[in-house]
């Protein structure tokens, strides 16, 4: 039997979002610290984290942030994992590893087979495969990752309508959903519930 696909709901900004995920227990939630309409401050994340079920791991999303700052978030327990969504190099990842024991997710924009090969070589604990810079609500061509031989997070344009097909077609370690569970730009508990129900049903 295949292992259950893990779930990450990204871009939480409100205590209502925390209530919704606490009830449904995805394995991960994401707090966005990079410039985005979902961006929150460190202080806000600390508050949200205080109410988050301790069984759910918090991921911080950063874009080209200083390694010392990312390490601080991990060391202080604001987040459990750091997701690097910019042009962070292997040197950057090694520098961050030197400073902290926290797990790292490196995001890659997938447009060609070359992008996939580059992602496979990353020394991060996990790779995340997305359509573009993240949060675009668009999917990439899943056939590009047919023979992926390392654990990865699948992101980009996932929602309740297509997530089952995505899992059956690509067999990811985890799926990462943000705009697909929103209504008018905010997280929608009904959509989160339906999405998670379908993922766990696969």
Automatic annotation (TrEMBL):
E.C. numbers: 5.3.1.24
Gene that this polypeptide is encoded by: trpF
Any GO MF annotation of the entry: isomerase activity
Gene source species: Fusicatenibacter saccharivorans
Protein name as it appears in the record: N-(5'-phosphoribosyl)anthranilate isomerase
Boundaries of every N-(5'phosphoribosyl) anthranilate isomerase (PRAI) domain copy: 7-196
Keywords (A to Z) from UniProt: Amino-acid biosynthesis, Aromatic amino acid biosynthesis, Isomerase, Tryptophan biosynthesis
Substrates-to-products reaction catalysed: N-(5-phospho-beta-D-ribosyl)anthranilate = 1-(2-carboxyphenylamino)-1-deoxy-D-ribulose 5-phosphate
InterPro entries found in the cross-reference section: Aldolase_TIM, PRAI_dom, RibuloseP-bd_barrel, TrpF_fam
């Amino acid at each position: 039997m295949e292992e259950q696909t893990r779930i990450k709901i990204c871009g939480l900004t409100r205590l209502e979002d925390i209530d919704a995920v606490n009830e449904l227990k995805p394995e991960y939630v994401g707090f966005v610290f990079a410039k985005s309409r979902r961006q929150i401050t460190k202080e806000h994340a600390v508050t949200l984290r205080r109410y988050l079920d301790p069984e759910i791991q918090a991921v911080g999303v950063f874009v080209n942030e200083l390694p010392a700052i990312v390490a601080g978030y991990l060391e202080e327990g604001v987040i459990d994992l750091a997701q690097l969504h910019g042009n962070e190099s292997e040197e950057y990842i090694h520098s961050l590893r030197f400073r902290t024991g926290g797990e790292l997710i490196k995001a890659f924009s997938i447009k060609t087979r070359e992008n996939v090969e580059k992602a496979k070589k990353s020394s991060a604990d996990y790779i995340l495969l997305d359509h573009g810079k993240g949060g675009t609500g668009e999917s990439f061509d899943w056939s590009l990752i047919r023979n992926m031989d390392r654990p990865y997070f699948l992101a980009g344009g996932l929602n309740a309508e297509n997530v089952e097909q995505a899992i059956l077609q690509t067999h990811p370690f985890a799926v990462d959903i943000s705009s697909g569970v929103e209504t008018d730009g905010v997280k929608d508990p009904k959509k989160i519930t339906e999405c998670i129900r379908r993922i766990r049903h696969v």
